[in-house]
Amino acid sequence: MATKKKEVVEVKKEVAAVEAVAKETEKKAEKVVEKAAKAVKAEKAPAEKKVAAAAKKVVKKAEKAVDTAAKKVAKTVKKAETKDAKAEVVLQFAGAEFKMAAVLEAAKKDYAANNTAALKTITLYVKPEDGAAYYVANGDITGKVNL
C-alpha cells in the first residue's frame, strides 16, 4: 500500500513538472513572438502578421501537448488512488459468517503463542466444514485455529 502511495506522489510530482515545462514553454514562445515582432517592426515589413500567426500556432501546439500529457498523468493518478481501495473477505458457510482478516489474525496470534521464531510467511487454509482454519508458517510450521 505504501508503494502505491509513493506512486501517487511520484505521479503528482510529474504533473507539477509538466505544468512547469508548459509555463516555461509559453514564456519562451512569448519572448520569441515579441522578438520577432520587434524585428519586423524595425524593418517595417508586412511579414509581422505572418510571424505572429506562426508563433501563436507554435504556442497552441505546445499548450495542447502539455494538456494531453497532464490528462494522461491525471488518469494515472486516479488509477493509482483507486487501487488503494479497502477490501474485506467474508466467508459464508452453513448460515455462519467468518471474516478472513480475523481468522488470519487469530492464526498469527496462535503462531506467536506457540513459537519463538519470527513469522516471515503464513498460508491459511480455511475448512468451514471442520469449523477450523489451518496454517503453515515459514514454510514448515503448522497450526490450527477454530473459526
End-to-end Cα distance, whole Å, is 28 Å
Please state the overall shape, judged from the principal axes of the Cα atoms.
rod-shaped
Q: Indicate the mean pLDDT.
A: 82
Q: Specify the biggest β-sheet.
A: 3 strands, antiparallel
Order of strands across the widest beta sheet? 3-4-5
**Percentage beta strand:** 15-25%
**What count of domains describes the coordinates?**
2
Individual helix count: 3
Query: What is the SS-derived class?
Result: alpha+beta
Order of helical and strand elements: HHEEHEEE
| Rg, Å, rounded | 31 Å
The helix content is 55-70%
Total beta strands: 5
The oligomeric state is single chain
Low-confidence stretches: none
Give the SSE layout.
Layout (H helix, E strand, L loop, with lengths): L1 H42 L4 H35 L7 E4 L2 E4 H15 L7 E6 L4 E6 L3 E6 L1
Antiparallel strand pairs: 1-2, 3-4, 4-5
Report on the structure:
This protein is of the alpha+beta class and 147 residues long. The protein folds into two domains: 2-82; 90-146, no CATH class. The chain has helices at residues 2-43, 48-82, 100-114, and strands at 90-93, 96-99, 122-127, 132-137, 141-146. The strands form two sheets. It has a three-stranded antiparallel beta sheet, with helices on one face. A two-stranded antiparallel sheet has the order 1-2.
In brief:
This protein is α+β, with helices and mostly antiparallel strands and 147 residues long. Helix content is 63%, strand content 18%. Strand 4 (132-137) and strand 5 (141-146) form a beta hairpin.
